[in-house]
Amino acid sequence: MTNKDLIAQLAERTDQTKVRTTELLNTTVSMFKDALLQGYTLHIKDFGDFLIKQRGERVSVHPKTGERTIIPEKKVLIFRQTTALKQTLNPA
User: Fold this and answer.
1) How many CB atoms lie within 10 A of CB 7?
2) DSSP three-state, residue 92
3) Which of 4, 7, 48, 63 fits as disulfide partner to 81, beta carbons 3.0 to 4.6 Å?
4) What is the pLDDT of residues 33-86, one digit of tens each?
5) Residue whose C-alpha is closest to residue 51's, from 64, 59, 42, 62
């Protein structure tokens, strides 16, 4: 689903204009980014948690040449699904 598709479906389901829906979606995404960058975990009920973790520096070895390269530490976005979403995706 593209951003355009998402906006069209949200606008239709909420009886809002596409312009208003775009503004709301952009504001929501901006708030999510701000919260994550401030160190908060973003929890969406029945969906999952988004959080930022620091991945440490590590050594990578090129499989063909055997050359070692240091990969610097970096921040990564982590998603953990809720049990409800997991059960929806993989019913027993």
Assistant:
1) 19
2) coil
3) 48
4) 999 999 999 999 999 999 999 999 999 999 999 999 999 999 999 999 999 999
5) 42
